[in-house]
Amino acid sequence: MNENKHDLKGVTEQFAIYGDFVSGAPYGSGHINDTYRVAINQGGTKMHYIYQRINHLIFKNPPALMENIERVTEHIYKKLADSPNKTRETLVLIKTHNGQSYCTDNDGNYWRAYVFIEDATTYDVVETTEQAFKTAQAFGDFQKTLVDIPGGRLNETIPDFHDTPKRIEALEAAITADTMGLVKDVQAEIDFVLQRKEEAALLIKLSADGKIPERITHNDTKLNNVMIDDNSGEGICVIDLDTVMPGLVHYDFGDMVRTTTSPAAEDEQDLPKVRMRFEMFEALLRGYLDTAGDFLNPTELEYLPFSGKLITLEIGVRFLTDYLQGDIYFKTHRDGHNLDRCRTQFKLVESIESQMDKMMQLLNEIKK
Ligand code: ADP
Ligand code: GN1
Ligand code: MG
């Protein structure tokens, strides 16, 4: 059975997957790629795989992206040398019959396939401080593992991905163009951004001044990009590797604060529900420092709390830009969806701002 818009059976035939295609259905809640969980009958046993169509309008060079993912997953796999559960602790790519890590279909789409990690779950909204701690530990460990990846600089799959000033410039261009005539409805949101324009350049400046180093970062550290083991509660595997590339550690810590401290969803319409819960921030900070603490320099450490505010602002800016441009980038599921997402981000920015002193105090206490 295949009720999808893509020919998943045809894709299956290109990969070195033994057995018969049974079914496939959309999976997860990503905004960019198309993800499917596929069932294959292997000699009477139903096995699952994850298939993903890479959005090549956004990731303009899928072969270069897949080269990164091959390098990253192979490096992690090697470092897991003695672990009995290696295929649950890193994504494992399935090769095609030609030995490639991706294939293309007749419509020019690029596809990859992964071993499905069973008995683990991803969460869209954090439930416990334990989850926040384990998530941050997993992303910190991911950065640490990649510190010595051989083979030179990784490819930049989307240039300037976390360059917040450039993201604001893109918003300003969308405001000037006002193609959909929506600018008049979002003046409050525009003002919110412009008031914070100067500080939005802080990390890029520190990086240009050599105060914070380039590292290999994940760059999309949403809570739902870590698989949490159903039995142990450990963050067993970091997934969604399209944006793994050179970056600042703050991009990762900041997006964890954005996605793992509020009790509300990214697109919550009831804004009073949106807030940064300090206990979740504390769990994130402790979890992250547990695995990444020993390689960070003092300036990197000092700007961790600020990064939560910055990345939340940046993603809000991107949602607002997309709203003004007529929803051309992120998948949307209702009218005004991107504007709802933007408002949620800005509400969270305010909540983070109001707790910044306390966040810094906690950091200083932990550092001692
Ligand atoms: P997107 O870019 O669409 O967010 P992800 O790679 O994060 O794509 O995959 C979407 C969801 O599919 C994840 O949140 C996770 O629940 C699930 N998923 C992805 N890869 C695997 C895997 N190898 N095993 C099990 N589930 C997976
Ligand atoms: C997108 O693909 P997904 O849903 O994991 C986006 C991220 C945003 C996120 C907001 C390539 O991530 O940068 O932070 O949506 N990915 C890309 O939820 O733009
Ligand atoms: Mg994802």
Average pLDDT, to the nearest integer? 97
What sequence of helices (H) and strands (E) makes up the elements? HEEEHHEEEHHHHEEEEHHHHHH
The named CATH superfamily of the largest domain: Aminoglycoside phosphotransferase (APH), C-terminal lobe
Global Rg: 21 Å
CATH topology of the largest domain: Aminoglycoside 3'-phosphotransferase, Chain: A, domain 2
Q: Kindly report the spatial arrangement of strands forming the biggest sheet.
A: 1-2-3-5-4
* Helix run count: 13
The hetero compounds bound to this protein are: adenosine-5'-diphosphate, 2-acetamido-2-deoxy-1-O-phosphono-alpha-D-glucopyranose, magnesium ion
The second-level CATH architecture of the largest domain is Alpha-Beta Complex
Explain what you see.
By secondary structure, the chain is of the alpha+beta class. It folds into 2 domains: 8-118, Phosphorylase Kinase, domain 1 (2-Layer Sandwich); 129-367, Alpha-Beta Complex (Aminoglycoside 3'-phosphotransferase, Chain: A, domain 2), CATH 3.90.1200.10. Helix content is 43%, strand content 14%. It contains 13 helices and 10 strands. The chain has a 5-stranded antiparallel sheet, covered by helices on one side. Strands 6-8-9 form a 3-stranded antiparallel sheet. The chain has a two-stranded antiparallel sheet with strand order 7-10. α8 (249-260) packs across α11 (304-324). The longest helix has 21 residues, at 304-324. The protein starts with 7 loop residues before the first helix and ends with a helix. The relative contact order is 0.13. It binds adenosine-5'-diphosphate (ADP), 2-acetamido-2-deoxy-1-O-phosphono-alpha-D-glucopyranose and magnesium ion (MG). 2-acetamido-2-deoxy-1-O-phosphono-alpha-D-glucopyranose binds next to loops.
